[in-house]
Design a protein that fits this description.
There is one protein chain. With 398 residues, the protein is α/β, with parallel strands linked by helices. It has a domain of 118 residues. The chain is 21% helix and 15% strand. The strands form two sheets. Strands 5-6-7-8-9-10-11-12-13-14-15 form an eleven-stranded parallel beta sheet. A four-stranded antiparallel beta sheet has the order 1-2-3-4. Helix 4 runs antiparallel to helix 5. The longest helix is centred in the N-terminal third of the chain and has 17 residues. It is elongated.
């Protein structure tokens, strides 16, 4: 059995043709890969700042050492050389892949390695600044478990985007309440509850917590005055009872609450004069409030896949509306769209309409209409003028 001691904490052993790292006398990890660069190809090396870049850019084919004529012993000495260089260069994490270098560095800190302690947090800050996407990877590894929320916020302060999508989160990370970044992405996790701790110091402009298990929204969300877009789609939210208006959300332009359990159209949204896009599709909404006419800036309204039976005349007051999606509801009676002079796209398929909107032939900007086969058989003659003039593109779905 081959054995090579890097320093008082790290030893490598060749066991059954595999190179194993031991830290403090205990098995830590198996070395998995060696990477080879063509030194004659300067183009391939131009953007390489770390070993991670080699893997992320797929710069080398995934070949086994044996396929390159490298014996297990030669591979062992290659790993020994890499680890020794890493130590000699003060644990520079760019010299090893982050999936190894940071857990290794964290373990050395636990064992009392003074050199590791001196560079650990600094290395994390430097690498995340160089590659912001690395934060997600390190967070999933548990690298930040020994950090205070203030320390994490300090490391992330220069990033524009905080990306913790698909991180396996079950709880809302407390350090987020210490952040003042622009974009927060927490999609595709298992978060059920958001603590009521947002403050005026949270300056997020874009907040996305889609595809989680949220059942409600904290009232403190209204303290994030800079919000321009909120995406809480694909959760289990049944009520949205925030007291919101142009003062609490003066810049809010987009709201996505699709794929939730909303029973009612959140009438508070109608106080948002700057709102341009509202997606409430795939809920259980039965009625559209008359106050919807107050949404002067609204351009896109998606109410598809709900339980809506009637469309109020107030919807024709949405003077800037460009896209109206009413597919897959329970609408029977006709309705008016007479003042929607900018309406370009209208989706009506999946309803049991007795007739099309009264003034559909007099909408000057309408260029796309989606209906279903049953509707087409009933109303095609009504649309003949528009179709023959080629001013409208008709799309018929099953």
């Amino acid at each position: 059995m081959r054995k090579f001691r890097i320093n008082e904490y790290i030893t490598l052993k060749l066991e059954r043709k595999k190179t194993i790292i031991f830290i403090g006398g205990k098995r830590f990890n198996q070395c998995k890969s060696l990477f080879f660069l063509n030194l004659l190809n300067s183009e391939s090396q131009r953007e390489i700042k770390s070993v991670d870049d080699i893997i992320d850019n797929d710069m080398d084919e995934d070949l086994l050492p044996a396929e390159l004529g490298i014996t297990p012993e030669e591979e062992f000495w290659g790993h020994c050389s890499n680890l020794q260089t890493w130590c000699e260069y003060d644990y520079d994490t760019r010299l090893l892949h982050s999936s190894l270098s940071f857990p290794l560095l964290g373990r050395l800190v636990q064992l009392g390695d003074s050199n590791a302690k001196a560079v650990f947090k600094e290395e994390i800050a430097i690498r995340i600044k160089e590659n912001p996407s690395l934060f997600n990877r390190l967070y999933v590894m548990g690298i930040f478990e020994s950090f205070t929320k203030e320390e994490i916020a300090d490391i992330l302060k220069e990033l524009e985007i905080i990306d913790l999508r698909k991180s396996g989160l079950k709880k809302f990370p407390e350090f987020i309440f210490n952040l003042d970044n622009k974009v927060l992405l927490l999609d595709d996790n298992e978060i059920q509850f958001i603590p009521n701790k947002f403050t005026k110091y949270n300056t997020f402009r874009y907040l996305s917590i889609s595809n989680n298990n949220l059942k409600g929204v904290p009232t403190s969300l209204t303290r994030i005055n800079n919000l321009e877009s909120i995406d809480l789609s694909n959760n289990s939210i049944s009520h949205f009872n925030l007291l919101i208006n142009d003062k609490t959300f003066p810049y809010l332009r987009e709201i996505n609450l699709s794929l939730n359990q909303l029973q009612d159209f959140p009438s508070e949204f109608c106080k948002l004069k700057r709102l341009e896009k509202l997606d409430l599709s795939n809920n259980k909404i039965a009625n559209i409030p008359s106050s919807i006419s107050c949404l002067d800036s609204l351009k896109v309204l998606d109410l598809s896949c709900n339980n809506i039976k009637t469309v109020p005349s107030h919807i024709s007051n949405l003077s800037n509306l460009e896209t109206l999606v009413l597919s897959d509801n329970k609408i029977e009676s006709s309705f008016t769209l007479k003042d929607l002079k900018y309406l370009k796209s209208l989706y009506l398929d999946g309803n049991i309409l007795n007739s099309l909107p009264f003034d559909i032939n007099f909408l000057p900007s309408l260029c796309y209409l989606r209906i279903d086969k049953a509707q087409a058989s009933k109303f095609l003659s009504h649309l003949r003028t528009k179709i023959e003039s080629k001013s409208i593109r008709l799309f018929v779905v099953e």
